[in-house]
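By way of example, what follows is a protein record of this kind.
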Amino acid sequence: MGPFEYRDGELYCENVSAASLARRYGTPLYVYAQSELERAYRRMAEAFSALSPVICFSIKSCHNLHILRVLRACGAAFDAVSIGEVRRAVEAGAAPADIVFAGVGKTPAEIDEGLRLGIGCFNVESADEAVAIVSAATRLKLRVRAALRVNPDVDAHTHPYTTTGKQENKFGIGIDQACALYRKYRDQPQVRFSGMHLHIGSPVNSVEPYVETVTRALALCDQLAREGVTIDLLNLGGGWGISYQDDDAPPIETYAQAIVPLLAGRKLHIHFEPGRSIAAGAGILLARVIYRKQDRSRKFVIVDAAMTDLIRPALYSAYHFIWPTAPGARFIPASRRADLAMPGLETVDVVGPVCESSDFLAKQRALPPVAHGDLLAVFTAGAYGAVMSCQYNSRPRAAEVLVHGDSARLIRRRETYDDLVAAERDPDR
């Protein structure tokens, strides 16, 4: 479990016990391990070092400013999909030139602000957007690099809501249209269309879709070169899988071993946009058991965390390993698999307080018996956890804590009722 380990039957994040964090900051509570953020970033950089890539952390996966600062200190650039994320990157210490601005629906105001800030590259998702960026750059008399997001029509074999590289997806531009746009803007003086961006989805748990994507991208680069269009930046996105169970996905080195030889020797600047593969394993969500309930067919463990705190199970049927923070030595798991078999376990649904039947963190999950007041940890929750939380049912969003060695610090305070209604109160009263 990396930086999360059981010591004498009690869960620790680095050198701080989960129970002490819950007592100090309350629950539900997101807990991040700084050592794991740093380790995952450096491991990825090392795996792809032969390409000297620019690693643009995907802000949408985990946007807390304090976490962005940790990754910036490691050398990360940033991938932003809104002007709000661009501003987060700048506030976290990034130079605008180290920000890639992606997203299918950039507004004219967002484009203008990105240009004025001097961001490093726009990832362009449509012919209309290309027109808008060229028009804005010409009007503002500013120059910028752009990368067309090419939709390679590659099946990433992931959840249909998180696949992004097939023809039916809203993302990117088909290959034929992309070629026409590269030719159209070949001599454009304000916007240099010299980049190509591809992102096929997330999580992608095998290397084959990447091999297919890179092969198609390089063939397209060669075709364009014959037509006098030079592509000098190739952004391969991210989406690498991570293990939510024991062996869902190969290690990052396996992806690198397949991708690096395809790109070696090419005169291309390489960008990656990882998010999940850096942040997911660095975070857990702590939840307190409120009640138990049983009918003739089901046992329910009702906790104070909900789909408003972690929506992935409800939205994607996503699996997160869940375990008590102090199960006793007998019940410390050696595996994170859904079909875990150990003596003394019971099968329960772990559910939250929200008034929706989709409000669950796990269904029919084998757990040690737990009671009112016990603390559960939801693992691999560092990506697409807190960032997707909401205030539905007027539930204040959870606090977030960053642990480094023996110390823990609050990096987002728990919301209050006043936070919930502040924007609705009459400013004249």
Remarks:
- Residues 208-226 form the longest helix (19 residues).
- Residues 161-166 have pLDDT under 50 and may be disordered.
